Amino acid sequence: MKTRASRTFDPAGVVFGVAVPLAVAALCLVLAYLWQGRLPDQVATHFSGTEPDDFSNPLSNAWTLAIAIVLVGGGCSAVASLARVLLIMRRTMLIIGLTVVGTIGVLQIATLVRELDMATSQSVTIPGWAMAVGTVVGFAAGLFGASKLRDHRERVVATSSPHADLPRCNPELPLVVRVGASRAAGITVVVISLAGAATTCYLTSSPWPIILFVPLTILILSLLRFTVHIDSDGLYVSSLGMAAFDYDIDEITGASVRTVDPSKDFGGWGLRAKGRGNYAVATESGPAAFVTFANGDRLTIGSDQADAIAGTLNSLTARTRSTTVD
């Protein structure tokens, strides 16, 4: 039995992933045209540290940055509009894309404001605060937009119970298991990020670049740590409080336990995809729950509680199918 996705495009994805980048690009263009008479003949387009070292016509520069916003930021975030693409991928790309859009957009507007009524842009300095504000605003908009995305993938209902040889257990619901990088690994990521931020601040002689590393660190950590939630409704794997995977209990065909090596089996650690429909939360070597679904998807969840995850899913699905048959 199949229940097909009713949408090709996610409305929230279209708004945040397509309309927002276009609106920001258009705003930058409109302001450049409105302020053309108050801007120098040549505006700063590139900076060495905080000092300008390249200049161009204001309108030419505005069009270049507008195209960059649409192609780079919008190119990433537009993936969010594709309703049947993996939800976690759509959310991640939206966050990345809107962070880029916010950084470029706010920086462009702030730089133009600084150059208003100046005879020459030779003495203008890059507004470092604008990069920080733009990054934070873009990241926040990306998070908000990501929370509004919904999973419109095809859902296929399984018709038979899991094989009798698959593990079973007496489920205590809800089963909540946290998987992912250890605390030491998380601290390592933070330390590396701080080192990069400190180096950038030193080279630019500005404290503002440190803010640029905050969203990057949060995003990296979110792809290394997950929460697995299992109840009578199904299997829910989340990151940053949002669904990475969300499967109904009647989609599950069975779950087994196997041993995995993330680097060997999936080419790396964290959230991985190896071929169509073959996904993994591969955050540690050792036992993993291998879950299969009626639509052909497979999900591997590395955890020292793999037996409990697999046993709980099999018991729940068997109970559901038995109740349905009765």
Automatic annotation (TrEMBL):
Listed name of the protein: DUF1648 domain-containing protein
Q: Which residues cross the membrane?
A: 12-35, 62-87, 94-114, 126-146, 184-205, 211-228
Top-rank taxon, per record: Bacteria
Its keywords, alphabetically, are: Membrane, Transmembrane, Transmembrane helix
* Every DUF1648 domain range: 24-68
Q: Which InterPro entries match?
A: DUF1648
